[in-house]
Design a protein that fits this description.
The complex is a heterodimer of chains A (787) and B (267). Chain A is of the alpha+beta class and 787 residues long. In chain A, 27% of the residues lie in helices and 22% in strands. Chain A has 19 helices and 28 strands. A 7-stranded mixed beta sheet of chain A has the order 3-5-1-12-9-10-11. In chain A, helix 14 (507-519) links the parallel strand 20 (494-498) and strand 21. The two termini of chain A are 53 Å apart. Among the domains of chain B are: 1-55, 2-Layer Sandwich (Uridine Diphospho-n-acetylenolpyruvylglucosamine Reductase, domain 2); 170-266, Enolase-like, domain 1. Chain B contains 11 helices and 14 strands. Chain B is of the alpha+beta class and 267 residues long. In chain B, the strands form 4 sheets. A 5-stranded antiparallel beta sheet of chain B has the order 4-5-10-6-7. A 4-stranded antiparallel beta sheet of chain B has the order 11-12-13-14, sandwiched between helices. A 3-stranded parallel beta sheet of chain B has the order 1-3-2, covered by helices on one side. The chains are: A alpha+beta (787), B alpha+beta (267).
Chain lengths: 787, 267
């Protein structure tokens, strides 16, 4: 391993820029003649818009335009779409309701944009927005997903507010397995709704160039090319080649910046109408109402066991709340990203899952760190843990008994696990967490009036999505390959162009490490270019822990081509046969001789083309590749959480955290550790603190940081983090992905630990002090302080 | 934020005159309660009178059997005050538990007390110690000062100049943080000064900070946590929201009061 190659904990190259305040975020960009946009948003969850009077607003100082949904429709701007088709059990397609960028006729959630004010300054736009008079006729709001089918119909296309009633698996086989079971564990689970809260709120700048009749959109996007495709092909703003999308530095996304949002469309449209660049910057309060939320499942799940603890079958019925409109990938999250993971790390012969997706008068719900897989892991890991307790078995032992051991392993829910060693990560985690010493720690805690509990989560996820053919057959509207281009400059330095997008993941470092490792050149001589549709030809963006497994694999494929071409050049330079050229450690040599050419010389010769005929060999050294994976990747591991609960107040403190993950090959252990830290923090946030709460009228009660509790450093102990490695067999470097693991694993580990401590399973997320206290009260099991 | 006129007087008298002259004018101290609501356009004072250059408004002084703190004294300075560590450490605990370092370096005691947020920490200390709020016009006993949620006995043109806290031998503050905001979901300040025993509760009451007479009477028998065993307050009239029901808050008042007394008797 070299100091900067694969496996080295190289310091992040991009951090100098970020920590010295030199990052270029969208809001840092100001265009000549720029105007500022403010959206007027519906204060009602569900209301008819009788009339919008913009006349007073138009007269306000500095106002350039006040625009409404009617004008948007008149200009034939298309609707936002959901790009993943799901069919119901009965074969009918999902019921996608029209979603205009600015509501017209009807508002469907608190925050739904109903008008757009464009003014010279932000303050002027805000002042004028207050003068837009909207006459609403409030309608009954549908808020609770479990009752959505009986609520007032929100969209004409969706009777009973039902988007689809989908299922996966063999129901008959599952029923038969349940009939033969010795024990059945049943759970009702609510997977709480979350607000993503990336550090940088969303921003969009639309600019129309009258000279070229073309648009530029600067936005906070995780996938600028997909944004361009959708805005061109479906929304019809401009032909694809007349729209450039630039997503510069982006301050976190967690999924919420994958989607194509109304504000981006509206700013582009408004820039053409006004002839001025139009910039919108979300403030934090607005982000709570305008960024897609995550999770929000209501599930009943059951697990059937044989007398020896072997899992026979699992069944789950889930209601998924997709909010007021179908966001870009919303339909896939509670289906193919969820039910396909219900086998967990276990060999379960029969699984059946039904998912009803419903509309409610709430902010649209879509993918959020983990997307479907945290929900699946929570179902499986809670069932296994509770199942063990109910049968008087050790939860680790029950897991071990049921682990998949032979690979490849075909689950009954589509996935083919390719490699893993689940026992190895469990074993290592148990050692690090000192599970043996837990009984003593529990007794010591009891002496201080505290309840200690220990919880496992042996999770699996499917990442690197995924083979384009496979996702196409499951309904995806796009392929999920990735592209890369390796541009070698005449001096030998290298630019990597990637279709992935970095917004905190450290691609500028890890991608460069792969290239440095391969070409034997210093990491400083490599730069990574991403996020601009004029620079990178096409790409699918970053989410689903795909940038390593798919994005880097594309780079490796392009590097293969670069090396092949460079060898040809070297062969001419060294007057040897191409097949005798060996490339190692940045040097080309002729096998069996001491003739050699350095990387830089070969690069220069490729461009000056003095040593070969341009007819025989093309000058230059630049290669591109598209990499389409052959399978998902399957990161997996074991997290163990230990909590201590103050039984008087119900307050939970996480006192110990152990994570042993199998991410396949690790390129930069420091960056991977950071990803695990962040993931755990978000998962613990979901388990203990975070929860988006709506009241009966559909107002978001937890609409600011005063009421929406984000995790803070003080909520965590130092983490014990380690890895085990089984390489992914389907991609060249053996990468699996690490971005979501923590968020997927953590919630179940926390709740398993809390329920272990308090001796009752009736704890919902977020398990706040009050929730735990109430559960303790209900169970009436206050143990004496000194047991 | 809406536009406003800004004044920066240098004496209390000038500030008071400006306040009297401009209807709906607001004093600006640390700005950590006022500015956020202005930014959200929930408050729009036409005139702001900045107290930051007014002389003689900050500092901590030992005066006889009292500690006197200037209205513009920052939370951090109170938390780290040598005088308080020596004579009244319980009072230093209160600002130490406020917000984060940024807030503590900017927010002031006068601003906090004048604001009387029902979840703020200082009101519990004022009531729990029987403090005297000194203004540009008069002296007001804490018992008469806090009149309800975000409301006080201050007249529109009255300025808090300092707050005088009698030194209590035994005192302590217990705060249970609101999981999101970090304010007091419930906070209890207890003190014993000769026969004056006080239990003041913030965060729980729908009308802001209040005293718990039943607890005080029980503690008058004997100032020990045991005296509070089995005692609780009724949830009626307590705040209830997504973070804590009235029942839970009532329960916390009992728990925190016992813990505060336990801390106080250790002093
Ligand atoms: C992120 C954050 C976290 C916080 N956490 C906590 C917490 O945990 N606990 C807590 O108690 N507080 C908390 N606060 C509030 C903080 O303590 C404020 O600083 C304090 O409440 C107000 O003090 P200020 O000096 O900032 O007053 P300002 O915001 O300037 O003023 C507040 C009000 O008091 C009036 N006023 C100010 N000074 C005087 C005076 N001398 N005489 C008369 N009226 C006056 C003003 O006109 C205004 O109406 C937090 C604030 C923030 C932003």
């Amino acid at each position: 391993m070299s100091a900067t190659g694969i496996g080295a904990a190289v310091r992040r190259k991009e951090d100098h820029r970020f920590i010295t305040g030199k990052g270029q975020y969208t809001d840092d960009i100001s265009r000549p003649g720029e105007t500022r946009a403010v959206f007027v948003r519906s204060p009602h969850a569900h209301a008819k818009i009788r009339k919008i009077d913009t006349s007073a607003a138009q007269k306000m100082p500095g106002v350039v335009a006040v625009l409404t949904g009617e004008q948007l429709a008149a200009d034939k701007i298309g609707h936002l779409i959901c790009g993943w088709m799901i069919h119901s059990k009965d074969g009918s397609p999902m019921k996608m309701a029209p979603h205009p960028a600015i509501a017209s006729g009807k508002a469907c959630y608190v925050g739904d944009p109903v008008a757009l004010v464009v003014a010279e300054t932000l303050t002027q736009a805000r002042d004028a927005a207050e003068k837009v008079a909207v006459d609403y006729e409030p309608l009954p709001a549908v808020v609770d997903p479990a009752k959505a089918k009986a609520g007032a119909q929100i969209h004409e296309v969706a009777p009973k507010n039902t988007i689809y009633e989908w299922h996966l698996g063999d129901v008959k086989a599952v029923e038969a397995a349940f009939r033969s079971a010795k024990h059945v564990t049943k759970l009702d689970i609510v997977n709480n709704r979350l607000v993503p809260n990336a550090m940088e709120p969303r921003v969009a700048i639309g600019e129309y160039d009258t000279g070229n009749d073309s648009f530029t959109l600067w936005n906070t996007s995780q996938n600028p090319h997909v944004a361009r495709l959708v805005i061109a092909a479906f929304i019809g703003m401009a032909p694809e080649h007349k729209l450039r999308v630039i997503a510069p530095d982006v301050g976190g996304g967690f999924g919420s910046k994958i989607f194509i949002y109304p504000e981006e469309v509206a700013c582009l449209w408004a820039s053409k109408r006004t002839g001025r660049p139009v910039k919108w910057t979300s403030d934090r309060s607005e982000a709570f109402l305008a960024d897609a939320h995550g999770r929000d499942h209501v599930t009943h799940a059951e697990m059937a066991f044989a007398s020896d603890g072997k899992i026979l079958a699992l069944r789950a019925k889930t209601i998924a709340n997709l909010g007021a409109y179908m966001s870009t990938f919303s339909s896939s999250v509670p289906t193919y990203l969820y039910a396909t993971l219900l086998s967990g790390q276990y060999d379960i012969a029969h699984i059946y899952c039904e998912v009803d997706a419903v509309y409610t008068n709430t902010v649209p719900v879509d993918a959020y760190r983990g997307a479907g897989r945290p929900e699946a892991t929570f179902v499986v890991e809670r069932l296994v843990e509770v199942g063990a307790r109910e049968q008087g078995m050790d939860p680790a032992e029950l897991r071990r008994k049921n682990f998949v051991r032979n690979f490849p392993h075909q689950t009954p829910v589509i996935m083919t696990y390719d490699a893993g060693d689940y026992n190895a990560s469990l074993k290592k985690a148990m050692e690090i967490a000192d599970v043996k010493g837990f009984a003593k720690r529990r007794r010591d805690a009891a002496r201080n009036g505290k309840l200690r509990g220990l919880g496992y989560s042996t999770y699996i996820e499917a990442c690197g999505i995924a083979p384009s053919q496979a996702v196409g057959s499951l309904g995806a509207g796009v392929g999920l390959w990735e592209s890369a281009e390796v541009r070698v400059n005449p001096t030998g330095s290298v630019e990597i162009l990637t279709g992935c997008h970095a917004h905190g993941q450290g691609h500028e470092t890890t991608f460069a490490q792969v290239v440095a490792d391969r070409l034997g050149i210093p990491i400083e001589n490599i730069s990574v270019v991403h996020g601009d549709t004029d620079k990178v030809q096409f790409g699918m963006g970053t989410y689903g822990s795909r940038s390593g497994a798919v994005g880097i694999s594309a780079i490796v494929k392009a590097l293969d081509k670069v090396e092949a071409k460079a060898k040809k050049v070297a062969a001419h330079m060294l007057e040897a046969s191409e097949s005798d050229i060996v490339f190692k450690d940045g040097k080309f040599t002729v096998a069996g001789t001491d003739k050699a050419a350095a990387w830089g010389d070969v690069a220069l010769n490729a461009y000056i083309a003095h040593k070969f005929s341009g007819q025989e060999l093309e000058p230059g050294l630049k290669e591109g590749a598209f990499y389409d994976p052959t399978n998902f990747t399957f990161p997996a591991g074991c997290h163990i959480c230990e909590v201590e609960i103050d039984q008087e107040t119900g307050e939970t403190r996480v006192v110990n955290w152990t994570a042993v993950d199998d991410f396949g090959t690790v390129i930069n252990p420091m960056i991977v550790e950071g990803q695990v830290h962040g993931g755990i923090a978000q998962g613990v946030g979901q388990a203990l603190l975070e929860g988006a709460v709506y009241d009966k009228e559909g107002q978001l009660v937890s609409g600011s940081f005063m009421d929406y509790a984000m995790p803070r450093a003080e909520n965590f102990p130092p983490f014990n983090i380690d890895t085990t490695v089984t390489k992914c067999p389907s991609n060249p470097l053996g990468l699996k992905g690490c971005g979501e693991a923590g968020a997927i694993a953590a919630p179940a580990a926390v709740i398993n630990a809390i329920t272990d401590a308090i001796g009752t399973e009736e704890v919902t997320m977020p398990a706040t002090a009050q929730t735990v206290w109430a559960a303790l009260q209900k169970a009436n099991r206050m143990r004496p302080a000194a047991e | 934020m809406y536009a406003f006129t800004y004044h920066r007087p240098t004496t209390v008298r000038q500030a008071a005159n400006l306040l009297a002259k401009h209807e709906d004018a607001k004093l600006l101290a640390g700005g950590h309660s006022l500015i956020p609501v202005m930014k959200l356009r929930l408050a729009s004072p036409p005139v702001l009178i900045d107290l930051s250059k007014v002389e003689g408004l900050s500092g901590i002084e030992l005066k006889g059997r009292s500690i006197v703190i200037g209205a513009m004294t920052r939370h951090n300075d109170v938390a780290r005050s040598k005088e308080l560590q020596e004579h009244l450490p319980a009072l230093a605990e209160v600002p130490a538990a406020i917000g984060d370092p940024h807030v503590r370096h900017v927010g002031t005691i006068g601003g906090s007390v004048a604001n009387n947020d029902p979840n703020a920490d200082y009101p519990a200390a004022c009531l729990g110690l029987g403090a005297t709020i000194v203004t540009s016009k008069r002296k007001i006993a804490a018992d008469d000062f806090f009149t309800g949620m975000f409301s006080t006995a201050l007249e529109p043109d009255e300025i808090i100049t300092k707050i005088s806290f009698p030194i209590a031998k035994k005192a302590a503050y217990q705060k249970f943080k609101h999981p999101a905001s970090g304010f007091a979901l419930v906070g209890v300040f207890v003190s014993k000064r000769a026969s004056d025993i006080r239990v003041a509760v913030t965060g729980a009451g729908a009308n802001g900070v209040f005293r718990v007479k039943a607890f005080e009477e029980a503690l008058a028998q004997r100032f020990t946590p045991k005296s509070l065993d089995g005692l609780s307050i009724k949830p009626d009239g307590l705040n209830s929201d997504i973070h804590a029901s009235a029942e839970y808050r009532a329960h916390l008042v009992g728990v925190l009061a016992r813990r505060a007394v336990a801390d106080a008797v250790k002093r």
